[in-house]
Design a protein that fits this description.
The protein has three domains: about 5-170, Transcription factor LuxR-like, autoinducer-binding domain (Beta-Lactamase), CATH 3.30.450.80; about 180-295, Beta-Lactamase (2-Layer Sandwich); about 305-370, Arc Repressor Mutant, subunit A (Orthogonal Bundle). Helices cover about 45% and strands about 20% of the residues. The chain contains 18 helices and eleven strands. It has helices spanning about 5-20, 25-35, 60-70, 80-85, 95, 100-105, 105-110, 150-170, 180-185, 205-215, 230-245, 245-250, 280-285, 305-310, 315-330, 330-340, 340-355, 360-370; strands at about 40-45, 50-60, 115-125, 130-140, 190-195, 200-205, 220, 225, 255-260, 265-275, 290-295. A hairpin with a 6-residue loop joins β7 (about 220) and β8 (about 225). The longest helix has 23 residues, at about 150-170.
Amino acid sequence: MDEAEQVSCLIADVYDAALNQTLWPGVLKESAAFVGGVAASLFSKDAKSKTGSVAYAVGIAPHYQRTYFETYIKLDPLTAGHCLAELDKPVSTADLMSYDEFLETRFYKEWVRPQGMVDFVSAVVDKSTTGAAMFGVFRHERDGIADDETRRRMRLIAPHIRRAVLIGRVMELKTAETASFADTLDGVSAGMFLVDANGAIVHANASGHAMIAEAAVLRAPGGRLVANDASTDRTLSDVLAAAGGGDSAVGVKGIAIPLTSCAGDRYVAHVLSLTSGARRRAGTNYAAVAALFVHKAALDLLSPPQIIANTFRLTPSELRILLAIVEVGGVAETALAIGVAETTVKTHLHRVFAKTGINRQADLVKLVASYSTPLLG
């Protein structure tokens, strides 16, 4: 199987998992092998509470999964960088901090090294003001640290995993058996439409019918789905037309299509092809080429830490030290709390002083407080 065929099969499996959550472990195993690793996970981190949870994981022993979220998430030096990373952008350890510095952390010595791991390459699939949901692949010492080929392969699949995760959330992780596909989607709170290649509505759930009746975001003249904004409608029409050609034809164009209501409210639409993978049967049963999910968009707000990082051009490591100093106190206490050497804390702290124009820790506390950061308290 050449790479194009391999990617096509993997992406089909990814989107099948959007409708049937029991498929995720198999998809993660395939993804880890494709990217070049021994394990993979879909998980989330909250920087405010320094907590997280795993949705699905393969290749990581239950003991290490448990101890990470019980203990080591608080010592993980990569958390700040992960939560600030761009959507879909592959990020490895060396992108967030000096790899030599990483090797000196308690997190590496006590959690990473005992498993024979050397690197972790991830991509953010969703963000909040305090954290992020991520897809990541763990690299074993025999794989070596992430290289350009690793990142290239990650870029090929990360956007599709993001779309599948977002659709799964819209569906509240319900399992959609093809025999009761429409019945399952009818229970989804978001507007849902099954459409043909011309945008004609084959089936809509109750929320979808309500949207059409209101005509604030979408209309259906002659039974064809139309977005109120002409430019968006062209994009939507193009994506729905492409859906007949399967996942590869849709590509990444159907991820989070922005919609605007007549009142200016923001909505987002996700298009899922029904002509690939296990979804083909459902599409055939309903003479549909795609399922369209439409829901109100969350406010796209930068978190206070991200604003601080952007304002003063802080690296993820510098931001982490800044927030830790403010929360914990002195250099020695911070080094102990986050599991790094005091010299490392001092190095980054000096850089923070230089970039912010501040030379006292007390003033750093005032600076961070002025942004009302939710990471404290």
